């Protein structure tokens, strides 16, 4: 049997087990992400379901994304913050943008592949409906008050710049709002007649010249939650109640002196749950999916260490009277993770196995 026919045999066996309803399926012998991507791209076409690939970190996530794109697969990638949530440091803007765009897209569509890291799998999120409402869909000749649009853009992370130059910025001039959504190649110019959208035009950010008229436009959020200046003021009120003990006074003041002015502060993204509790996770976004765990032993070890470090860090900040939300307010518990995993068919990819050389040879020839 030549390598190609043996590989097809393996794919047919996997497809058969999935259709049979087998809960946990192991596939061994694939020693590279390239080989795994090749097999999974073939499998996905055969079964027609979304494959959700769970890696141990963002580094492997990037490799998976690049290799799957080689096979022309539709992919949504959801990286994790990969940082200590108790350090009073805000996540990188690019990570916020990538996560927000991915979740916003997942709230309305399911691609061929979702690639995510283990920490993203256990991070608490807003529900798909709440996420969908963070963005906006604007249609020509329909009403959408410009002041409401400005408030929405500001709340979900856009920055006002005159003139607009980059993704995630907007500008306002009279009855005209320019905005550049993170999922768009070019910015758009929205002209209002009162509260009615009179025209929507795509334009070149460098030349400011119009590219063409549009009937409607979708604006994706720049972060996965909305927080207006008024929301931050409300957060300060509730934070004073939550952390009323005198021992938190100094550390709390470092935050509330900004929040009471409607301004953000370092690390606020991991404290805003106090005002807007998150009760969902990526599992709530998944429909007609197969979970693919890349090297489950490594992922399990990574999550075990993550939960241990999370508990240790929360204990440490509590000992020095710093404010922070409990781990269960920010992440699924280990028990919640196990319960959610049990709802899905799971394909586990392991490097060790007898057909690794044949599979890799097949891939390299291809």
What does this structure look like?
This protein is α/β, with parallel strands linked by helices. It folds into three domains: 3-129 and 277-365, Rossmann fold; 136-219, 2-Layer Sandwich (Penicillin-binding protein 1b fold), CATH 3.30.2060; 229-263, no CATH class. It has 13 helices and 14 strands. The strands form three sheets. A six-stranded parallel β-sheet has the order 1-14-13-2-4-3, with helices on both faces. α1 (3-20) packs across α2 and α2 (33-47) packs across α3 (58-70). The longest helix has 24 residues, at 296-319. It is flat.
Which labels suit this protein?
Rossmann fold, Penicillin-binding protein 1b fold, six-stranded mixed β-sheet, 19% strand, alpha/beta, flat
Mind sketching the topology for me?
Blueprint: H1 3-20, E1 24-28, H2 33-47, E2 50-55, H3 58-70, E3 75-78, H4 93-106, E4 113-117, H5 118-122, H6 128-134, E5 136-139, H7 146-155, E6 159-160, E7 169-173, E8 176-179, E9 188-193, E10 196-203, E11 210-214, E12 216-219, H8 229-242, H9 249-259, E13 289-294, H10 296-319, H11 327-330, H12 334-341, E14 346-350, H13 356-365
Parallel strand pairs: 1-14, 2-4, 2-13, 3-4, 6-7, 13-14
Antiparallel strand pairs: 5-12, 7-8, 8-9, 9-10, 10-11
Helix pairs in contact: 1-2, 1-13, 2-3, 4-6, 8-9
Give a short overview:
The chain is an alpha/beta fold. Helices cover 42% and strands 19% of the residues.
Mind summarizing the main beta sheet? 6 strands, parallel
Going by CATH, the architecture of the largest domain would be 3-Layer(aba) Sandwich
Quaternary arrangement of the chains shown?
A: single chain
Order of helices and strands: HEHEHEHEHHEHEEEEEEEHHEHHHEH
Number of domains: 3
- Biggest sheet strand order reads 1-14-13-2-4-3
Report the structural category: alpha/beta
CATH topology of the largest domain: Rossmann fold
Estimated radius of gyration: 23 Å
Low-pLDDT parts are 353-366
Q: pLDDT average, as an integer?
A: 91
> What proportion strand?
15-25%
Number of strands: 14
The dominant shape is flat
Report the end-to-end length measured between terminal Cα atoms.
17 Å
Level-1 CATH class name of the largest domain: Alpha Beta
The number of helical elements comes to 13
Share in helix: 40-55%
């Amino acid at each position: 049997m030549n390598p190609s026919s043996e590989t097809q045999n393996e794919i047919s066996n996997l497809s058969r087990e999935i259709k049979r309803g087998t809960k946990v399926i192991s596939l061994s012998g694939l020693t590279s992400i390239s080989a795994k991507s090749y097999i999974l791209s073939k499998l996905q076409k055969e079964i027609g379901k979304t494959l959700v690939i769970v890696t141990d970190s963002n580094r492997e996530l990037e490799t998976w994304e690049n290799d799957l794109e080689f096979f022309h697969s539709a992919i949504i990638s959801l990286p994790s913050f990969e940082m200590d949530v108790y350090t009073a440091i805000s996540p990188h803007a690019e990570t916020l943008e990538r996560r927000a765009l991915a979740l916003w897209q997942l709230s309305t569509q399911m691609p061929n592949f979702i690639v995510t890291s283990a920490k993203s799998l256990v991070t608490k999120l807003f529900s798909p409906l709440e996420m969908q409402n963070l963005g906006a869909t604007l249609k020509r000749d329909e009403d959408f008050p410009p002041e409401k649009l400005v408030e929405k853009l500001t709340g979900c992370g856009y920055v006002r710049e005159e003139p607009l130059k980059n993704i995630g910025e907007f500008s306002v001039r009279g009855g005209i709002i320019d905005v550049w959504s993170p999922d768009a190649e070019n910015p758009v110019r929205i002209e209002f007649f009162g509260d009615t959208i009179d025209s929507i035009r795509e334009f070149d950010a460098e030349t400011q010249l119009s590219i063409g008229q549009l009937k409607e436009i979708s604006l994706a959020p720049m972060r996965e939650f909305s927080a207006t200046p008024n929301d931050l003021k409300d957060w300060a009120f509730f934070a004073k109640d939550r952390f009323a003990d005198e021992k938190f006074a100094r550390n709390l003041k470092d935050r509330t002196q900004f929040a009471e002015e409607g301004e953000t502060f370092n690390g606020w993204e991991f404290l805003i749950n106090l005002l807007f509790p998150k009760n969902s996770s990526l599992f709530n976004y998944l429909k007609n999916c197969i979970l693919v765990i890349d090297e489950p032993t490594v992922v399990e070890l990574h999550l075990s260490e993550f939960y241990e470090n999370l508990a240790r860090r929360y204990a440490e900040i509590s000992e020095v009277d710093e404010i922070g939300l409990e781990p269960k307010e920010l992440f699924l518990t280990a028990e919640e993770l196990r319960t959610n995993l049990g709802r899905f068919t799971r394909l586990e990819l392991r490097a060790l196995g007898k057909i690794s050389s044949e599979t890799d040879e097949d891939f390299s020839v291809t």
